[in-house]
Amino acid sequence: MSIVTVQLGQCGNQIGYEVFNAICNDFHSTHGLCSKKENESYQEACKERFFSEEKTGVPVARAVLVDMEPKVISQTLSIAARSGHWRYDHQSHFCQKQGSGNNWANGYSVHGPRYRDVIMNLVQKEAEKCDRLSGFFTVMSMAGGTGSGMGAFVTQCLRDAFPTSFILNQVIWPYGTGEVIVQNYNSVLTLSHLYQSADALLVHENDAIHKICAQLMNIKKISFRDVNQVIAHQLGSVFQPTYSSEGASQYSRSPLGDLMESLVPHPEFKMLGLRNIPQMSENSLTYSTFTWPGLIKHLRQMLIANAKMEEGIDWQVRPPLPGHPVPPKASPNKALHFNTSIANLVVLRGKDVQSVDLGGFRDPALYTSWLNPQEAFKIWKTPRAFNKYEKSASLVSNSQFLLKLMDNIVGKAWNMFASKAYVHQYTKFGIEEEDFLDCFTTLEQAQTGVGPFVPLKMSY
Amino acid sequence: MVPSTPSLAVGRACVSLTRTAPGTRGAGLSEAWFGVGGASPSPVGGGGAAAGARAPLLTAPGAATMTQSVVVQVGQCGNQIGCRFWDLALREHAAVNKKGIYDEALSSFFRNVDTRNGGGDADIHKGKIFSLKARALLIDMEEGVVNEILQGPLRDVFDSKQLITDVSGSGNNWAVGHKLYGYQYREHIVEKLRRTAEHCDCLQCFFVIHSMGGGTGSGLGTFVLNVLEDEFPEVYRFVTSVYPSGEDDVITSPYNSVLAMKELNEHADCVLPIENESLFSIVSKIHQMTSSGKLGSTVKQNSLLTSSAGSIKTEQEKPFDAMNNIVANLLLNLTSSARFEGSLNMDLNEISMNLVPFPRLHYLVSSLTPLYTLADVNVPSRRLDQMFSDAFSKDHQLIQADPKHSLYLACALLVRGNVQVSDLRRNIERLKPSLHFVSWNQEGWKTGLCSVPPVGHSHSLLALANNTCVKPTFTELKDRFMKLYKKKAHLHHYLRVDGMEQSCFSEAISSLSDLIEEYNQLDATKSAPGTYPSRLKIAM
Ligand SMILES: Nc1nc2c(ncn2[C@@H]2O[C@H](COP(=O)(O)OP(=O)(O)OP(=O)(O)O)[C@@H](O)[C@H]2O)c(=O)[nH]1
Ligand SMILES: Nc1nc2c(ncn2[C@@H]2O[C@H](COP(=O)(O)OP(=O)(O)OP(=O)(O)O)[C@@H](O)[C@H]2O)c(=O)[nH]1
Ligand SMILES: [Mg+2]
Ligand SMILES: [Mg+2]
User: Fold this and answer.
1) Residue B327 CA: which ligand is closest?
2) Measured between CA atoms, how close is A241 to chain B, in angstroms?
3) For residue B31, what pLDDT is reported?
4) Is the bond preceding residue B370 a cis peptide, omega within 30 degrees?
5) Cα gap A339→B44, rounded to integer Å
6) Looking at the DSSP assignment, which residues form a beta bridge with residue A216?
7) Do B341 and A419 touch (CB under 8 A)?
């Protein structure tokens, strides 16, 4: 089945491009280290997922590019075309002359409705090119105006137009000290809307990825391109074909569906984080060897200690002992730093994946009490190595720490909202104070797990 | 997207003209650009490939070009600064646009017109540069300055349809500019603005340039601002205002400035206040550096913030030129991200969105660094970091103000050239501890990365601060106003103008007082302990 990617705004387009590029590079990778037959069916599945074939033979990305200003899109189209390995459809983009000016309200209330028909037409056309459509992957930042505002609007339109398709939103969490001053407002508005229309939100934090570039990749002068390549690598490591169940004879047909089924057991909790191992510069890779037990041990500790990378993990953090629930509120106890999971998915690629022991992820102490580990933990595998890594593991998790991230942003936005700063900029485009309040309410609810659903025992 | 028209073929014919022009000096290219309009080139053919190469990407549905901006320069100061802006804008585009093709970046401030055969007015949207016309309106109520421009090297950039002049000036009287000439010329102004706007397919911004102290720029300039709001409510209004210094030779400048301030408070989206004292001290500083034997020889002449080197203007420099070049560079950097690409674009509409938390607090203090670049091409990151430090120092601000010792409401860093996010992050982290930000905007940073550096530089920075440090400029102005107003000095010159009442003065001064009070209240929060509002509680 195929996935249609919708790239929105500067960030969405710049990352979207890198994702297709990473996938295409992996497609051609000669480090496959598996049988020829295996490699062929992997490539076949990959192609069906992300590219359509054209007469010329150059794969065409299943993507729709949207921005409210022309510079990013024209640049993205031309660098893709220049690569020669793949390109975008010449018809499948939409841009205007002036951006949304970092104003979520402008993107959501003005540009969204104004260009809905054109954009949905492009999406429809792209969807019709797929024999079987698994769903949509939208890529956007939360901080700007177009990706965030238009993105929230387009996600709603997708939900209405394709009620049975899956929608996964890739959202880029802004740097703490932002490039956009109103980023916390825009994020609150985006998150609260996506909570209502997306099936899941996959989160990448710019700060975390930036650190990976500095510490793992050893890049001195880090550009957005470097950051985006790491993100793209991580995404590729999850969405390239895998066998999604033990003994499956075919590559998974419905990657998005499988993902939601594994990781979103309840619609109140739909924020997902991604970690991978190993991640390093090509130079170091040449001189490194890995064992599966080592990789898995690190990956598990990255999860429970909430580390975004293998360097600097706090090995002191342990799951709470049975019968000793995590102590409530501000306790200096180490257990406080323990990151409780709702659900986890581990993706293994490369040599000897069949023999990997993942028992450590089946420990009930890792999970909330309302899901048993059989339901809460899933594995996808393939013997086909990813990119240049002989062995690699990725972890997609639905866990507590993302709620803390959200809490942080909601707190800052609320602090600003109390002084009414910048609110006039939003009322100009039809988003009133009450709309803000509604969004704050939605997110406060999402965090406490109030609503139809209270059994969650999480501590803060 | 405009389809190829027959005129494009003519456009191609001109390629050889620019190709043979000296390729290294910006001046040569600019001359070539202008030469095209006057000369009648013989058709040669070919050379259109560069223009065509991008075409397939942009001809798809929905593809569009960039936005445009229009500059409205009013009064002597406005026109003299404007003149420097156009000159340096041409220099900048010539440095980037080596092929002499009319591209989107150029289209943001310039039209491309075929002036041969009786000066048709039709725009040529693609292909070779014929004759570039500034998207500008030149207004002065005397003829001297504008005439000088029309006789100077920039004459081809403007045409007579873009001018509004009278003969007698406003005599340093705001009322004459605003009330008398305002009403007299309103229709005229509206008509010319509309015509200029019609040449744009997506007009995003008006840049008004004027001084506060005289009569025309101050009075008529702010009248134009009102007209813009009425006629083009959707288009952003950026105002560059030159404030009079304490020793200004215009006696009535405090009146004119305070009367103008009320209009700026109410009708501008953003104001960039400039003080001549600050410009002057930057000019002196650069002069000192470059004439000191050791450094002087290694400084790249065209990199000086005050320099016109490499521009088409070859005549003797006029007294204000060096100072005005600084302001011109401010505008170039401000608009760079709207004209050139970058990994983090900063559109013009993002500036007010990020920097203006409350409608009236839209005064942005600016600083430009570096002041010059050394010819040595190796840029250690220490020097790059110095550029960031300098942008916050007192002596780089374009008004007499010290942002470091006042309160930031928000701050923008617009970086050009070879600078990456990691450089930005490192410097923000480094500088943050030494700056005070208002409690509800502790992380009030907006950043933009434009990949094209200014002429002569490898990188540059424009910092825009919404900071309470503008307050002293305003309180001093208020004091000077009150000194005159208490004695009712010169009032009769104003009150004799039709439509000018005493209440105009009292309303203007109370508008200014209110603004100062808003800054006072924010300053007061600086010493108060940070109290944070309690969060929304969800009832179970
Ligand atoms: N990782 C990553 N983040 C980016 C990139 N470009 C922008 N961002 C982030 O995205 C946010 C800014 O949003 P943009 O995507 O630039 O905004 P936009 O969607 O184009 O919206 P407008 O420009 O306001 O119309 C900031 O948080 C940036 O850190 C990128 O290429 N990679
Ligand atoms: N920076 C700079 N300031 C100038 C320039 N020309 C005049 N000024 C300042 O502007 C103020 C005087 O205003 P002008 O612009 O000359 O006056 P005007 O708008 O032409 O109005 P009238 O002459 O009264 O009709 C004084 O404060 C001057 O110092 C200039 O070219 N550059
Ligand atoms: Mg954008
Ligand atoms: Mg004058």
Assistant:
1) 2
2) 31
3) 44
4) yes
5) 71
6) none
7) no
* B94 vs B89: CA distance, rounded Å: 8
The answer to whether the CB atoms of A69 and B347 lie below 8 A apart is: yes
Q: Packing angle between helix B321-339 and helix B276-291, nearest 10 degrees?
A: 100
Q: From ligand 2's centre to the CA of A293, what distance in Å?
A: 76
Torsion over CA: B317, B320, B324, B326 (sign): positive
Distances (CA, A) of A394 to A46, A302, B243, B476: 18, 11, 60, 63
Pocket perturbation via mutation, ligand 2, pick of B176, B211, B243, B249 by most ligand atoms within 8 A of CB:
B211
Supply the residue whose CA is at minimum distance from atom 27 of ligand 1.
A174
**Residue A197 CB: number of other CB atoms within 10 A?**
17
Neighbours of B294 (CB within 10 A): 7
The two structure tokens encoding residue B357: 């938390």
The angle subtended at Cα A191 by Cα B338 and Cα A448, nearest 5°, is 150
Give CA–CA dist A167/A286, Å, rounded: 38
Element (H, E) at B33: helix B26-38
Which of A181, A207, A456 is the best substitution to test chain B (most B C-beta atoms within 10 A)?
A181
Nearest Cα to Cα of residue A4 among A137, A119, A169, A153: A137
Q: Which residues of A265-287 are buried (b: 16+ CB within 10 A; e: fewer)?
A: bbebbbbbbbbbbbbbeeeeeee
Beta bridge partners of residue B75, listed in sequence order = none
pLDDT at B374: 62
- Distance in angstroms between the alpha carbons of the first and the last residue of chain A: 40
Q: Which residues line ligand 2 (CB under 6 A)?
A: B 75-77, 80-81, 141, 169-172, 211, 213-217, 242, 244, 248, 250, 253, 276, 279, 320, 323-324
Please give the distance, rounded to the nearest whole angstrom, from the Cα atom of residue A353 to the centre of ligand 1: 37
Percent of chain B with pLDDT over 70: 82
Whether the predicted pLDDT of A453 surpasses 50: no
Q: Could you give the CA distance from residue A96 to residue A72 in angstroms, rounded to a whole number?
A: 11
Residue A343 CA to residue A24 CA, distance in Å, equals 30
Task: Tell me the Ramachandran region of residue B477: left when phi exceeds 0, alpha when psi lies from -120 to 50, beta otherwise.
Answer: alpha
Contact: B353, A182; criterion CB under 8 Å = yes
**CA–CA distance, A107 with A151 (Å, rounded to integer):** 8
Q: Whole-angstrom Cα distance, residue A337 to residue A316?
A: 10
CA dist., res. A158 & res. B365, Å (int): 44
For the stretch B212-271, pLDDT in tens is 999 999 999 999 999 999 999 999 999 999 999 888 788 999 999 999 999 999 999 999
Residue B54 has pLDDT above 50, yes or no: no
Interface predicted TM-score (ipTM) of this complex, two decimals: 0.86
Burial level of B418, CB count in 10 A (0-12/13-18/19+)? middle
Scan for tokens 């910048």, then name that residue: A422
Rounded CA-CA distance A313/A317 in Å is 9
DSSP string, B150-206: HHSTTGGG--GGGEEE-SS--TT-HHIIIIIIHHHHHHHHHHHHHHHHHT-SSEEEE
Band (B18; pLDDT cuts 50, 70, 90): very low
Structure tokens, A24:
């295409």
Chain A 200-219, residues with CB within 8 Å of chain B CB atoms: 210, 213-214, 219
What gap in Å lies between CA B338 and CA B342, rounded to an integer? Answer: 10
Q: Which residue in chain A has the smallest CA separation from B362? A: A422
- CB within 8 Å of chain B, chain A residues 261-320: none
Bridge partners for B449 per DSSP = B344, B415
pTM comes to 0.88
* Ion ligand 3: protein residues whose beta carbon lies under 5 Å: A 10, 99
List all residues of chain A from 21 to 60 with a beta carbon under 8 Å from chain B.
Answer: none
